[in-house]
Design goal:
Blueprint (H helix, E strand, L loop, with lengths): L2 H7 L5 H9 L3 E3 L2 E2 L12 E3 L2 E3 L6 E6 L27 E2 L7 E8 L2 H8 L7 E7 L5 H9 L2 E2 L2 E2 L4 E6 L2 E6 L6 H8 L4 E9 L2 E2 L8 E3 L2 H9 L2
Parallel strand pairs: 7-13
Antiparallel strand pairs: 1-2, 1-3, 3-4, 5-7, 5-15, 6-7, 8-12, 8-13, 9-10, 11-12, 13-14
Helix pairs in contact: 1-2
The protein binds uracil.
């Protein structure tokens, strides 16, 4: 694998952070300075600032993200982040993003390849949201959400939509554009007051209170690989 991916898998830094370390000449491979295009194999000896580093076990965590926590590894405004809610080792990063005030299912992993694929629109991972909204959406609004909504960045793909209560609806989408659900509901005249992701790629939050996390079962990881 490429040197920056190796350093990310070793928990040293994100891939971008790893590139900076490599450019700064702080990384060696078998004693020679590493380059951005260096490829590393398992027998190679990699060191950062002279300290040997090693690959970490691939780890997959499902977090019940609480409100008010940001989906990033580091927040310039020093708000609490999702990575602070899970063990620091091995270092995992969120797959995709939930808004600070969205709660629900969030996957974190150090498997960069799987994370990249799951986050890619081409793979169309299924995400289910429960939204509480202003007003009482009628059948016309629900049908418009199903058919697709014209947003600033283009039309949304067809969605599965179900009424959960007078002002609560469930939406299942395969896309993951910024603030997509909030924008879709705003567009039909029903701004979101509360948003919760109840399922991600078939993973639900059963047994997890807000702020709690669990490791995925090997069968669940296999399932994610199959959904790629
Ligand atoms: N759509 C949104 O608007 N916000 C989220 O956090 C996720 C999907």
């Amino acid at each position: 694998m490429r040197l920056n991916a190796y350093l990310a898998r070793a928990g040293v830094a994100s891939r971008r952070g790893a590139d900076e370390l490599i450019k700064a000449g702080r990384v060696t491979v078998n004693g020679e300075p590493g380059q951005l295009n260096t490829f590393v194999q398992s027998r190679d000896r990699v060191a950062v600032d002279g300290e040997p580093v090693a690959l970490q076990k691939l780890t997959y965590l499902l977090l019940h993200k609480p409100a008010g926590v940001v989906t990033t590894a580091r927040d310039p405004q020093r708000r609490p982040t999702v990575v602070e809610l899970v063990p620091a080792e091995p270092r995992v990063v969120p797959v995709g993003r939930l808004d600070a005030y969205t709660t629900g299912a969030l996957l974190l992993t150090n498997d960069g390849q799987l994370a990249h694929r799951l986050a890619h629109p081409r793979y169309g991972v299924e995400k289910t949201y429960e939204a509480t909204v202003e007003g009482k959406p009628d059948d016309v609004a629900l049908q418009a959400l199903r058919d697709g909504i014209e947003l600033d960045d283009g039309p949304t793909a067809p969605a599965r939509v179900r009424r959960l209560g007078p002002n609560r609806i469930e939406l299942t989408i395969h896309e993951g554009r910024n603030h997509q659900v909030r924008r879709m509901l705003e567009a039909v005249g029903h701004p979101v007051t509360r948003l919760h992701r109840s399922a991600y790629a078939g993973l639900t939050l059963e047994g997890l209170e807000p702020g709690q996390w669990r490791e995925l079962e090997p069968s669940e990881v296999d399932q994610l690989r199959r959904s790629e």
